[in-house]
Design goal:
alpha+beta, two-stranded antiparallel sheet, 12% strand, flat
Length: 100
């Protein structure tokens, strides 16, 4: 019985860590099946009116990703001499965002 409690504690800790780095909003679908992406999310993803997104259907839900990388997301990288370590770190972070 004690081992089951330990397993549940580990699961709860893992779930907490997973959710800790997420922002969650609840939205209703319109009668046409449309969904509004919250302003804070659009701002963080640098999404604007008319931008295209990719919808990915998986067993556990729908994932939404920006279709293209905006140049605005790169702002600040080229203001001074390029630091290759910073550039590589930026690229790796962007690649992680695309892993599902």
């Amino acid at each position: 019985m004690k081992s089951k409690n330990v397993i549940w504690r580990v699961r709860l800790i893992f779930l907490h860590l997973l959710i800790k780095n997420m922002e969650i909003k609840y939205k209703k679908l319109s009668t046409k099946g449309q969904l509004t992406i919250p302003k804070e999310f659009r701002k963080k993803l640098n999404l604007h009116k008319g931008d295209e997104v990719i919808l990915i259907l998986k067993e556990d839900g729908i994932y939404i990703r920006p279709k293209t990388l905006h140049l605005g997301m790169l702002r600040g990288l080229l203001r001074e001499e390029i630091n290759l370590e910073k550039a590589e770190a930026f690229i790796n972070e962007e690649r992680k965002k695309w892993k599902i």
